[in-house]
Write a structure and sequence with these properties.
The complex is a heterodimer of chains A (299) and B (208).
Chain A: E1 4-9, H1 21-33, E2 36-40, H2 53-56, H3 58-75, E3 81-83, H4 86-101, H5 103-113, E4 126-128, H6 129-137, H7 139-144, E5 154-157, H8 179-186, E6 190-191, H9 206-209, H10 211-227, E7 232-235, H11 238-246, H12 248-255, E8 263-265, H13 266-273, H14 291-298
Parallel strand pairs in A: 1-2, 1-3, 3-4, 5-6, 5-7, 7-8
Chain B: H1 3-11, H2 16-23, H3 38-42, H4 53-61, H5 65-69, H6 82-86, H7 93-106, H8 115-130, H9 135-143, H10 148-157, H11 159-167, H12 185-205
Helix pairs in contact in B: 8-9
The chains are: A alpha/beta (299), B mainly alpha (208).
Amino acid sequence: MAKKEYSFYPGCSSQKAASASNYQTSVLTMCETLDVQLNEIPDWNCCSASIGYAGGGELPRLALSARNIALSEQANPGQDIVATCAACWLATKETQERLHDDSSLMEETNQALAEAGLEVQADGNIRHMVEVLIEDFGFDELGKHVKKPLEGIKIAGYVGCQTNRPFGIAGESFENPMYLDKLVETMGADPVENYDKKVQCCGGALAFSEPDKSQALIKEIIEAAYDGGADMIVTPCPVCQMNVEVYQGQINQKYNTKFEIPVVYYSQLMSVAYGAGVKEAGLDGQVIRATKLEEIARK
Amino acid sequence: MSNLNTQMIEKYRNSFLREVEANVEEGEWVKMCMQCGVCSGSCPFGPHWEHPPQEIFMMIRAGKRDDVLTSDSMWMCTSCYNCIVRCPRGLPITHIMHGLAHYAHRLGLAPKENPTHKFAIKFWDNLTRTGRVNELKLGLALYFMNGFSEGIKTSLKMKDIGLGMWKTKRLSPMEIVGGHKCKDVSGLHKILAKAREIEESKAQKFSG
């Protein structure tokens, strides 16, 4: 397959020494195998995520994402924008759709952007990396690159909220999306069947502000994975990953549980299956080490 | 009471629904709610809402302005979008809740001690300062949002998580001095100021 190029919006959490820097590492490794070139949007800004609404309001929030789209149109014309973070994708895609469908919003946004000498068209596609994998490659093609099948690992595919709703992945249902399970299978691992908490909310940003209420949800997500016999959980979202991984100690104290289950990104599974080492797959970034994956990566 | 709040009470004396339609993001959808309650049943924080979404919609129509705007209900939204995809009438419920929360904040009516309200404002301030989120400063601001001694207690409670993130290079103490930022921060600030100016003048112009 010929090299594919995309305009890349990494987002705040993917930066160096930020909370999802290991996600970024594995995405770059995965893309190298797939011959994907990611052209970073120059001087991109935060999308204001799912909690920026309170201070921001509608137009300032749309203007943030519009600035990114405008910079992408300038630097990477004609290329689809691809985000790896669920919130980045959602905010940018929502902005693109709303500007596209509402000429007065478009006009107002461009009035704001003009203050910095920018202009937006917003007529291109805004995609999640998972969409690129499924739609531009497909499971068969993704499977062809597997060098070390992830045999003997059982994995709960935790899709979460914002990669799934309100946009979701074409052809998948909101209530029971199957693509993550298919991807797990394609990499040679064993998906947990009927993982009933696969689209349950982890609390999102409210894990910070309402820890008790959020951790009650996270507990259910982990419990259901254990019930399905999972060795680890896989997710496409940086907030899901962090929330489900790092609060296990606090949940154990609160609920007298003994949770210690690794939570990894799909791109880490793929990197290892494609032959990458522990570091290239970002596995040294796990707070709870994914030992079964590391063993395969070291082989 | 804020000036804007007094102004809005005067302007929409007879109809809170019209006030919401004019000033709240996606507010024109409120009247379409048919009170089925699917949103409330689908919400992961459902039991924690003083007034679940469909009740909020009815309260808006009933003119319960203060009860709605001072409620901490909207601040329970985790942005999971479950309500949006399930609503049989297609109401963008998540956006309406965000819009109501923002409007309540603008009017100075949002519950001051609600942790999500405080966190959300800190998040916006954090990201707009440099154009990118500084996770370390955001975390610390959050721990210390209830004062210094509370902050020390929270920091101690959270220290294992911080250490875990630091050891795996997912958090850097260096973020406290510099950190990631946009090059054209001043351009970004100009864009945001203009966007806010346009939004405010639009609200003034609306005559129902």
